[in-house]
């Protein structure tokens, strides 16, 4: 059975060296899969399964390239980069990977909380520039702060548990309460969480309904001098409104591992010009604002790496192959989206 792994990275090579897969004929492609990707006649005819990451965009045009496609396995929890409705029409199964980043994203989130609250970024920059002013780096003890967690699935609940060990009071908001957390968090409505949290961390999947969940109005409700952390999806926060809130001093800082329009915000120089040419006005504006944010001492921006540990990558690959095998054997319960 032929599989093509798109978005293949060097960090994934070790797994396949250590875990041979004799039951699959696997081809590895470093580039993302999108409308402009060239697919050979052989690959179009023989490929039954493709695996992609968030940087690929699986549209109707992409699906038309493959004549015998049966399964798409995304090496991510989110799947909004795949046209799910079109896959369903064509009877193409879509698989994702849940919970792979529970430890890695939790650790990253807590690290960002400490880095922001203890003013590590400006302290490091000033140290390099030999312009030290310790008054600028006065922080807070975490056990004196309230953490608001939006989304209490695997990652959100793990963040709550770690934050509790640090003595933080925790507010949580979710459509469904996690019964494991009832003794350590206070479930509140969305606006209450915004108004009373010193730090807010986002851990929900992106849907059309969640676009700009945090925008000008929501930011206005937040406490003066509060912080926000986003390791979920860039589109959950209105970047322009966030920039204004930071510039006005409403927010003390933010940490963003994800950005709006990541395809042009995060890329190497060769692809950046091409992506900007194809981008709409909205995305170009967001990319410019993100660049301005990156220059601020109040802001930490990283290129979607919260999950990015060897351990999490190996879990992703192991789960992806396990799900593919299960799907081919008729198991419809294993990480199946469609």
Q: In the CATH classification, which architecture of the largest domain applies?
A: 3-Layer(aba) Sandwich
CATH superfamily of the largest domain, by name, is NAD(P)-binding Rossmann-like Domain
Q: Report the uncertain regions.
A: 268-274
Mean pLDDT: 93
Number of domains: 2
| Rg estimate, integer Å | 21 Å
Cα separation of the termini: 21 Å
Tell me the name of the CATH class of the largest domain: Alpha Beta
Shape: globular
Strand order of the largest sheet: 8-7-6-9-10-11-12
- Structural class, from secondary structure content? alpha/beta
Largest beta-sheet characterization: 7 strands, parallel
What CATH calls the topology of the largest domain is Rossmann fold
Q: What is the element string, with H for helices and E for strands?
A: EHEHEHEHEHHEHEEHEHEHEHHHEH
State the helix count: 14
Give the tally of β-strands.
12
State which percent range the strand residues make up. Answer: 15-25%
Approximately how much helix is present in the residues? 25-40%
Quaternary organisation: single chain
């Amino acid at each position: 059975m032929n599989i093509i792994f798109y978005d293949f990275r060097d960090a994934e090579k070790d797994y396949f060296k250590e875990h041979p897969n004799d039951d699959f004929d696997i081809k590895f492609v470093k580039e993302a899969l999108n409308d402009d990707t060239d697919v050979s006649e052989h690959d179009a005819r023989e490929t039954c399964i493709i695996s992609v990451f968030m940087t690929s965009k699986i549209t109707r045009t992409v699906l038309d390239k493959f004549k015998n496609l049966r399964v798409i396995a995304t090496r991510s929890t989110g799947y909004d980069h795949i046209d799910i409705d079109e896959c369903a029409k064509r009877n193409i199964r879509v698989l994702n990977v849940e919970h792979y980043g529970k430890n890695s994203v939790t650790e990253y989130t807590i690290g960002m909380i400490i880095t922001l609250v203890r003013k590590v970024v400006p302290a490091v920059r000033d140290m390099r520039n030999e312009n030290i002013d310790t008054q600028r780096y006065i922080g807070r003890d975490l056990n004196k702060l309230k953490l608001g967690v939006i989304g209490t699935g695997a990652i959100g609940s793990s963040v709550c548990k770690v934050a509790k060990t640090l003595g933080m009071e925790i507010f949580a908001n979710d459509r469904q309460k996690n019964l494991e957390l009832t003794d350590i968090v206070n479930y509140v409505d969305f606006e209450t969480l915004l108004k009373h949290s010193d730090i807010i961390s986002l851990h929900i999947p992106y849907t059309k309904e969640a676009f700009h969940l945090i925008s000008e109005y929501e930011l206005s409700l937040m406490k003066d001098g509060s912080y926000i952390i986003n390791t979920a999806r860039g589109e959950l926060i209105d970047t322009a409104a966030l920039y204004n809130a930071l510039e006005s001093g409403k927010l003390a800082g933010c940490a963003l591992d994800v950005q709006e329009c990541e395809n042009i915000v995060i890329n190497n120089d060769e692809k950046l010009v091409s992506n900007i040419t194809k981008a709409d006005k909205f995305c170009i504006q967001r990319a410019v604002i993100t660049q301005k944010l990156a220059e601020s001492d109040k802001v930490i921006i990283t290129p979607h790496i919260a999950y990015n540990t060897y351990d999490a990558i190996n879990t992703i690959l192991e789960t992806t192959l396990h799900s593919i095998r299960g799907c081919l054997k008729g198991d419809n319960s294993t990480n199946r989206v469609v």
